[in-house]
Every structure is written in structure tokens, then in C-alpha cells.
Write a structure and sequence with these properties.
The chain has 319 residues and is of the alpha/beta class. Helices cover 34% and strands 15% of the residues. A seven-stranded parallel β-sheet has the order 8-7-6-9-10-11-12. It has a five-stranded parallel β-sheet with strand order 2-1-3-4-5, with helices on both faces.
Length: 319
């Protein structure tokens, strides 16, 4: 089987031009014909003969034009927004970009831990006031770090903690599988998992089981000096409970890359706390985004060419 037509639809993932994605795919698959669609009309024309379509969104109307499609290669890790029933009915394989965010989001988490621990924010405030006076700070080494969610991002966080001489605790749906952390708990044991953790990173998907997982009771359980970092979804945290926890000193600090609601309203009290650092859902940005996404797509195209079927692919979602 020889794949010759790949349609890349208009998109600006993290503000990156789609042409750079197409260039990365062409570099890896020089034998393929890679078409970039920049308008709705071009999208309809491109998908008509494409065997592979790669994009973020893909609606039912556009799918009707895709007569030869065998694989939809999503550039996102999530896939609930896609026409899954139609994919299943037409036996269209679906893959995601799961894992491409691992390195950069892990660095974001470690950076937040260190910024609070070494009191960089306080140092910056003093610099603005031109104050030269002693600044006491802590150490990451010797602490306990809890990582909630041990998927690609959670594992990347644990990997980067290896050189910091810390104890690690992981939380995942199937704790019996073990994991890269020193201890592994299930979500039903999360209170036990975080009770002694001076650092907590949240990197789990938002599901019925994790919605508002971090509520008033869990913040009460957490270490009073815990540095809390959420790079998952805002809905994993009860925002009112987090606000109260900050006000009541139930935790030490919070770095929020995601919030609920999002964007965080301008008048929300979380903006005003010195021990809360908000970033605008930015941890996922990396200049390597399309390079890593192209790696997944190219690997799957080659695998299908070798096996003659669109199955057993990297990051494939069973439909």
C-alpha cells in the first residue's frame, strides 16, 4: 500500500502556522503528496481524494466530502469533539497527538515548583522596589511530590524530577499497573496520596471521576505549605474551594495554567493573591509541537504501508 495524499487542514495550533506542519510531514514522507488547505473551499477539495486527513476540528459536513479517507490524524490529544460514531461506521482510523506536550508541560511544572520554592516572585517584587535585603527560600530536594495522572505528561514530569532527589507519589486509574513513581495510588485514595506532599502537580484528564476532584475536603487534607500546579483542565478543581484554600492558608501557593471558568474573569480574587501565579493556558505551547506531531503521523503512515491496514497505530483510539 502506498499512501500518496495527505490533506492538512487550516489551523493555528498554539499560534503556529500550519505550513510548518506540512513542511515537517513532507520532510518525513517525501514520497507523499501533502496538500495544505487554507480556505473552506480548499478544505472540501483537499479531503475528497485524501487517504489521510490531519487537523484539529473535523465536522460532519466536511467528512461527507472525504470519500477516500482511511485515517484521521488529530493534532490534538483530545478527541471528544470529533464525529466518532461516523468514524466508526465508516471504519476510519483515528489517532491523536497524545504525548507531544510532555516535555514542555513537564518543564512548565518544574519551573513553577522552583519559582515558588526559590521565591523568585518575591525577589522580583523586591527588585522593582530596589530592595537589597536577605531573602530566605526553600529546596525542592528532600520533598515529596505528588503527580495526579500518570499519562504521557505525568510521566514526563516524573522523569524530570529524577535529578532533584525527591520522593514521588503517583495517582492513576489503575494503580495495580504500578508506574514511574515511588508509590502509586488510585483516585479513590487521593487523600492518602497528597497528605504529605509539599508539591502537587495535576495532569489528569477531565472525566466524570475527576471533575472537581480537588474540592474543599481535599484542600483541607493537603500539606499546608503545598505548592499546587494545575496543567490539566480547570474543571478538575473546584475554583471556589481553591480560592478559599488560598485565603485560609490550607495550601502554600498555586500555579494555574488552566482555570474554571476560562479565561478567569478580570474581577476574580485569584488574580490578586501574591501566592497565586496564573498563566493563560500556555504550558502546551512549544516550537516543537508540529515536529512531534509529524513524527506520529509519519510513523503511522509507514506502519500502515508495511502492514497493509490502518490498525495497530501509535496513539490509535479504538472506535
Amino acid at each position: 500500500m502506498c499512501v500518496t495524499e495527505i490533506a492538512i487542514l487550516r489551523q493555528k495550533a498554539h499560534g503556529l502556522p500550519v505550513e510548518s506542519y506540512a513542511d515537517a510531514v513532507r520532510e518525513r514522507l517525501p514520497e507523499a503528496t501533502v496538500t495544505v488547505a487554507r480556505t473552506p473551499e480548499q478544505e472540501r477539495a483537499a479531503v475528497e481524494t485524501a487517504t489521510v486527513v490531519s487537523a484539529g476540528p473535523f465536522d460532519d459536513e466536511l467528512l461527507d466530502y472525504a470519500r477516500e479517507i482511511q485515517l484521521f490524524a488529530s493534532i490534538y490529544a483530545g478527541y471528544d469533539h470529533l464525529p466518532l460514531d461516523e468514524f466508526a461506521e465508516r471504519e476510519i482510523a483515528l489517532t491523536t497527538a497524545s504525548g507531544v506536550h510532555g516535555p514542555n508541560i513537564a518543564e512548565h511544572v518544574i519551573g513553577a515548583f522552583l519559582a515558588f520554592t526559590r521565591r523568585f516572585f518575591e525577589a522580583r517584587r523586591r527588585q522593582r522596589e530596589r530592595q537589597w535585603r536577605a531573602l530566605q527560600s526553600g529546596e525542592l530536594a528532600g520533598s515529596t511530590v505528588a503527580v495526579v495522572g500518570l499519562g504521557a505528561i505525568g510521566q514526563a514530569i516524573v522523569d524530570r524530577l529524577a535529578g532533584f532527589d525527591v520522593d514521588t507519589v503517583g495517582v492513576r486509574y489503575s494503580p495495580e499497573k504500578g508506574g514511574p513513581t515511588d508509590e502509586v495510588y488510585g483516585f479513590d485514595e487521593i487523600h492518602e496520596a497528597v497528605t504529605d506532599a509539599e508539591y502537587v502537580a495535576v495532569a489528569c484528564p477531565l472525566t466524570d471521576a475527576t471533575e472537581e476532584l480537588f474540592d474543599e475536603q481535599l484542600f483541607r487534607t493537603m500539606h499546608p505549605e503545598a505548592i499546587f500546579v494545575n496543567v490539566a483542565r480547570g474543571g478538575v478543581v473546584d475554583t471556589d474551594a481553591l480560592t478559599s484554600a488560598i485565603q485560609s492558608n490550607y495550601i502554600g501557593a498555586a500555579q494555574l495554567d488552566v482555570t474554571d471558568p476560562e479565561p478567569l474573569p478580570e474581577d476574580h480574587p485569584l488574580w490578586g493573591f501574591d501566592n497565586v501565579f496564573v498563566t493563560p493556558h500556555a504550558s502546551g505551547h512549544t516550537p516543537e509541537y508540529y515536529e512531534r506531531t509529524a513524527d506520529i503521523l509519519a510513523e503511522n503512515v509507514r506502519r500502515a504501508a508495511e502492514t497493509g491496514e490502518w490498525d495497530g497505530l501509535r496513539n490509535q483510539i479504538p472506535l
